[in-house]
Amino acid sequence: MKTIESWHEEQFRTEIRARVVEALGKGADATRMASTLAASADNAQSFCVGRPYACAAGCPHCCVLNVAVLLPEATTIALWLRESLSGEELAGLQKRLGTHRSWARWMDDDERILKQMACPLLDQYGACSVHPVRPLACRAITSLDSQSCREAFRPTVTDEDRLVPADLFRKAVFDAAFTAVASALRQVGLDDRSIELGTGVLAFLEHPELVQAFLGGERMPQTLWL
Ligand code: SF4
Fold first, then answer.
1. Which residues line the pocket of ligand 1, CB cutoff 6 A?
2. 215 Cα–ligand 1 center, Å
């Protein structure tokens, strides 16, 4: 079994990078990209099996924080939503994502906490609606105490740090996976920039042609970041 003792950061990064380069260097397609991302997340998770955490569906307090995703993470989520939702559900989600893009994308974490601007991908039960394809950054964050989360993410103005006991090993592993995937994208000539989660997903839902453009090595239009 993989453990904290068997994790060697540089070796882990090299493995992830090599696997992503091998998969995408042959000429990427959206399905291969999604499965490669999933394999990278599974690889990271395999070092975290059995580690304690307090997070559960219905405990969405930290889902007000800004999340940065790599472009292929956004395309994978957009494609998954297209396959999973009805036309009506997708239209409703796109509307919520549009509102989010207009308001929340400009807010820093404190402002989002104060206004309780939750992630537009959170469902009505307080669960992640894209859990199987959720971003690496979301997988990196696990709390060890849900009461601390409730306190830390209360919408109050405070000068004090919002402290939550977290699994820092898990964070290090998933952060390393994120930077290794970014490095592999750069190596195979794909756009390696990150983008705010909701904004990126909406861009690929509104403009599905951008998925092929991304896979073809085009740099995504700068307007996505404006
Ligand atoms: S993608 Fe899912 S886990 Fe990540 S912030 Fe949104 S609702 Fe929370």
1. 63, 67, 119, 121-122, 128, 130, 134-135, 138
2. 25
State how far the Cα of 17 lies from the Cα of 184, in Å rounded to an integer. Answer: 5
What's the angle, vertex CA 112, arms to CA 166 and CA 119, rounded to 5?
Answer: 75
- pLDDT of res. 78: 97
* Cα 195 to ligand 1 centre (Å): 14
pTM over 0.85: yes
At 8-46, the pLDDT tens digits run 999 999 999 999 999 987 777 999 999 999 999 999 999
The residue contributing the CA closest to ligand 1 atom 5 is 63
Domain boundaries, the chain: 9-225
